[in-house]
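Could you join me in thinking about how sequence relates to backbone shape in a protein? We need material for that, and I hope you will provide a protein of your own picking. Once you have written the record down, we can walk along the chain together:

…
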Amino acid sequence: MDSTELAHGLFRILETGDPALAAEVVHEDFHNREAAVSPSPCSLPGPAGVLASSVWMRSAFSDLSFPVLAVAHNDEQVWIRLRMRGRHTGPFVRFRDGALDQAIPPTGRDIDFEQIHVLDLKDGKVIGHEAVRDDVTMLGQLGVFPPSPAVGLSMLAWKVTGRSARAAADVTAKAAEAAAGAVGKGAGRTR
């Protein structure tokens, strides 16, 4: 695959959770700088972490897609500008230092916002990822920032009743399962 195909492939993995594509596109030493806000399995190196990230994102957003707007590259990096689109049909759980930071209950709202990703390449695969995302726009589309009364009350109720913690545990378990499947099939490794 050339660098443009690798970039498209990485986001296709996030859309589909395809372990065969992950093994083809993602280097075994892959590191995702953006995994700090996701469940801990998303921080695993290699395809396992990417597959865990796919489960995490698809558990919150149905019809997830990443239409590509532009790609630039050299021999060592790819810069890709795209949109993240989907419908918020599951809890969107964000983490900080491995612990639950925020859970946004499903709103049924559509998201559509722009991102720029920098992918490092090595041995014909993607080995590193970092991004500049317009998360404020996404949170606005979800009614979180500024908080709409309905979404704010829903988030508070989820926190008080423990639904936020259960949602975090559930998505972490699903991400770990996806990562373990990748490791078991040789598509990644743990450290």
